[in-house]
Specification:
With 252 residues, the chain is α/β, with parallel strands linked by helices. It is built from nine helices and six strands. The chain has helices at residues 4-12, 48-51, 71-84, 125-130, 137-148, 174-191, 206-215, 227-232, 237-250, and strands spanning 2-3, 26-27, 116-120, 156-160, 195-199, 221-224. Strands 4-3-5-6 form a four-stranded parallel sheet, sandwiched between helices. A two-stranded parallel sheet has the order 1-2. It starts with a strand and ends with a helix.
């Protein structure tokens, strides 16, 4: 009789059962189940999971866990985000000063002898930009009027009461008017003009009338609306034409 331990050892060494006697009987180990009379022993595999049928249940997706953030931590995080994020609120634009056209004082042309001295209150903005008196539509109207009385522009001296002024000032104060009067008197003498043609309402002012009375006799002064006003008011042209006819007669 062979002890069953030798069989197991023989199998562990990889040896076959060829050397055993065909008549040999294997004696179970003392205390084994077969020795006790249990012939139908069921062996349990070493790894039970290998014989179990795998489960085919579909795994359920894991639901995300929602945790309540700490309010203090969340507030600190938002504060950091606001600090890092630039503000896109448009800044209030600073109002810029309105630029005005640059003007330069307009000097009167060289004074020469002329039959007529033509005066306006001051150079216009267009005159300052062009550097020449009566350079715009008012100048065109004025030259047409001179043509109607057969007076060539070369026989007229064009000037203004205010000279070398950096700004357009059609309503100067009394002090400014008085200060400019000597220049007008000098022009009147140097041109040796026979008459004055005064343009605009400025020459109706009492202080201007006073200075004109000191410069030239009333018989030598002729007053009409400014050519620019005549262009927009046709009803004034009739009275202006009557005044120009008187001037034409005085210049003969």
């Amino acid at each position: 009789m062979l002890n069953s331990r030798y069989i197991h050892l023989h199998q562990a060494l990889g040896l076959g059962a060829m050397w055993l006697n065909q008549r040999a009987q294997i004696r179970p180990t003392q205390g084994s189940l077969k020795a006790e009379g249990f012939n139908g022993v069921k062996t349990t595999p070493a790894h039970p999971s290998a014989t179990q049928t795998p489960s085919h249940n579909t795994p359920q997706p894991t639901q995300p866990r929602h945790t309540n953030p700490n309010p203090a931590t969340q507030g600190n995080a938002l504060a950091k985000i606001r600090q890092r994020t630039p503000s896109h609120t448009p800044a209030t634009p600073t109002p810029q000063p309105i630029s005005t056209p640059q003007t330069t004082p307009l000097h009167s042309p060289t004074i020469r002898p002329a039959k007529l001295l033509i005066l306006s209150v001051c150079p216009s903005v267009d005159d300052m930009a062009a550097g020449k008196l009566f350079s715009g539509a008012d100048g065109e109207m004025l030259h047409k009027m001179l043509k109607t009385i057969a007076l060539p522009p070369a026989q007229a001296h064009f000037s203004t009461w205010l000279k070398n002024s950096p700004d357009f000032n059609p309503r100067p104060d009394a002090q400014t008017i008085t200060a400019a009067a000597p220049d007008i008197a000098r022009e009147w003498q140097q041109t040796q003009a026979q008459a004055m043609l005064l343009l605009g309402d400025f020459f109706h002012r009492p202080e201007v009338q006073t200075e004109l009375n000191n410069i030239a006799p009333a018989s030598a002064r002729y007053h009409i609306p400014h050519p620019m006003r005549l262009a927009g008011n046709p009803q004034l042209k009739r009275s202006a034409w009557e005044t120009l006819q008187k001037l034409q007669a005085a210049l003969k």
